[in-house]
Amino acid sequence: MSTLIEGLFNGISIGSVLLIAALGLAIVFGLMGVINLAHGELMMLGAYSTFVVQNIFKSFGDPWFDFYIIVAIPVAFIVSAVVGLILERGAIRFLYGRPLETLLATWGVSLILQQFVRSVNWLLMISLGIFSLLFFGGIQVVKKRADWERIKSKTLTLLIFLSTGIAIAFYSLLSKNSVLTKAWFSARNVDVTAPKWLRGGTTALGFQTPYVRLFIIALTILCLIGVYWFLQRSTWGLKIRAVTQNRTMSSCLGIPTAKVDALTFALGSGLAGIAGCAVSLLGSVGPNTGQNYIVDTFMVVVVGGVGNLLGTVLAALGIGILNYLVGSGTLALFLTSFSAPQSLIDFFLFFATSSMAKVMVFALIITFLQIKPAGLFPQKGRTAEL
Amino acid sequence: MSQLGRRKFLLYSSTGVLASLFLKGCADSGGGDQAADPCAAADPCAAADPCAAAGGDGIKVGILHSLSGTMAISETTVVDAEMLAIDEINAAGGVLGKQIVPIKEDGASDWPTFAEKAAKLIDQDKVVTVFGCWTSASRKAVLPVFESKKHMLWYPVQYEGQECSNHVFYTGAAPNQQIEPAVDWLLENKGKEFFLVGSDYVFPRTANTIIKEQLAAKGGSVAGEDYLPLGDTEVTPIITKIKAALPDGGVIFNSLNGDTNVAFFKQMQGAGLNPDKYPVMSVSVAEEEVRQIGPEYLKGHYASWNYYQTVESPANEKFVSAFKAKYGEDRVTNDPMEAAYIMVYLWKQAVEQAGTTDLEPVRAAAVGQKLEAPEGLVTMQPNHHISKTVRIGEVRDDGLFDIVWSTEGPLDPIPWNQYVKETKGFACDWTDPNKGGKYKEA
What we know:
The structure holds two protein chains of two kinds.
Chain A: H1 2-31, H2 39-60, H3 62-65, H4 68-90, H5 99-119, H6 122-143, H7 148-174, E1 201-202, E2 209-210, H8 211-233, H9 235-245, H10 247-252, H11 257-280, H12 291-304, H13 309-327, H14 330-337, H15 342-350, H16 354-371
Antiparallel strand pairs in A: 1-2
Helix pairs in contact in A: 1-8, 1-11, 1-12, 1-13, 2-4, 2-5, 2-11, 4-11, 6-7, 8-9, 9-11, 12-13, 13-16, 14-15
Chain B: H1 2-32, H2 50-53, E1 58-65, H3 72-91, E2 99-106, H4 111-123, E3 130-132, H5 136-148, E4 153-155, E5 168-170, H6 179-189, E6 193-199, H7 202-218, E7 221-228, H8 236-245, E8 251-255, H9 259-270, E9 280-282, H10 287-293, H11 295-298, E10 302-305, H12 314-327, H13 335-354, H14 359-366, E11 370-373, E12 376-380, E13 386-387, E14 391-395, E15 401-406, E16 426-429, E17 436-440
Helix pairs in contact in B: 3-13, 4-5, 6-7, 13-14
């Protein structure tokens, strides 16, 4: 019996990592229908924010360092949400209702973000700042002219060339300065160390439970409650749901749909940031971190049924528990104690390695989607646009 | 009309300014990127590079590593070490009175790309040798290229053995110079029951086959083994298996590669598997990886290599201080970097002895080259591998290794494994035309 409970706990802890990673995507993909392939990279930005906060707290000394994670979570949320907001305003809003273009654009963004953390340095940031200042500042200035509409396209071309030119000139002028061009993170992975109270584990439940896992489960539950409350109980949540169901009607009723879109996307991105903070305690933090999670998160959302939080929760926990029970050989052991037929035990023993368990879970998911193509809880009635 | 003309003029002139700035930026980075080396041909401005015209005065060598993709994290450090050796040789007057001109190509962590770039280096750039590759998969991909063109590759990373090509010089450890001594040491000092963990590809699987045979021969036992897909970060099932297979503690032999190591050690600690009961011996975790995982998680665990930054020798002091001076105080050196560094010197010695850069004389001259390397004396053997000292290190607080055990002197390499039935009794000798890559020892 205790093996079973331990198995369930471990399964849930795997599932909660999947869930917290997929939660943001469930909102972005589920509610807005945006296939966001940059979701993993938003997680990565969250993980890097955690790294930065950790290093800042390291300089504060010992008692403070233990609590860096408390600060890192909101910081990761804000960083990823802001990047998500820029992404939505800058690219995705032009692509609503065109899933293929969104897919390609967000994939491009994911590559840009990966390369960005590899090569970011002060000089690059300052040059980017100069570019934005000149370009957007220039637009604001020229906008005041009466003939703005007429000269718009030409001004934009000119501004983009001029500000890029000046920014690049600035960059090449200072590129000899080694202090400015020292990469912040470089292509190498960085190390995030859990604070002392999150290392090790407890045996209070009769088996070893790592503190980090408990922390992530708690964090996942908090995020779930938060998202549920926001979507179901707040005014903005109501607006988000309204826009999801019928954009035109919502717009007619005076809901600022553009603002709602931006907010929803920022929320989803911010949750990705929190997930990044959580997984940095378990795994590696590097430019490729996001890539490790993107397939799993889409799998969870698709199995759960697009647009349904409960489905996402059940799918994440189901996949996690199944993965654990098969992969660790617990299922085979369990069947042995029930004196199940030998062939069945052999079958599960064959799948009792991490690689093979993945194969089995994938096969089961494919079979499941053949039977229920729209996932666990398909959306009923008229869906919004997709 | 006049307004339009002015605007057009502005547009064109700004484009012109931009283009010239761009070119200038390129030329700058060509020089600034590799301060001591104006001839780095990997940057896109190679056409404007003064060294391209002066190619007749330099000796072109290829550097073929992943500068992008998953493996870039590891392989760029090896490139740094190779560039350091080339710069040092050039500063001391070059080879045969000529400067070495490195031509960098990016294998992009993609094995077919490696083969393509190898062919490009040989056919288009006409390099006299290539230093390159990290993963066994990339080496296997470029091997047919080097064999068909009868060219020369220097390979700096420890690998699983079971290969001996006339066209490759291996300066990393063969299994008997890393894995086998580690298993022997563990059997003597840490316990008889082993759990084998590895990434799911050719190196860990071959390595574990060797370990299993060796354990069977020496009275140890395998309590279990499991493989994780590359890049996987969920290790809970494996930890459960380890606990079930070794309830009272035992030895874990770890040949995981890349990101999975981070997840493995972080989650091991959370699950209460501590080094006093479950010591982990790693064969892919060196100083650079320790930094990325965090020494807090690794302290007390072990690794087996030929070289550590903490090796005490004058050659190593010189290497470490030169490396830090070039790349920064916060950098560390590790085994593959050292192997990459010395292979450039071994090649240089072979060229000097042959008196030419022609392939066959250099190949013949390379065998028998001796070098007082940072890791100690190394000698290129007739089987194209080098004899190396083996050391076991224990991770300490600052992320470097305490050397807890080492062999008396350099150990001769055995590429064909003697614990595996299919290759037992075989050896390799390229100095004797009757023997070649795989012959049955009498």
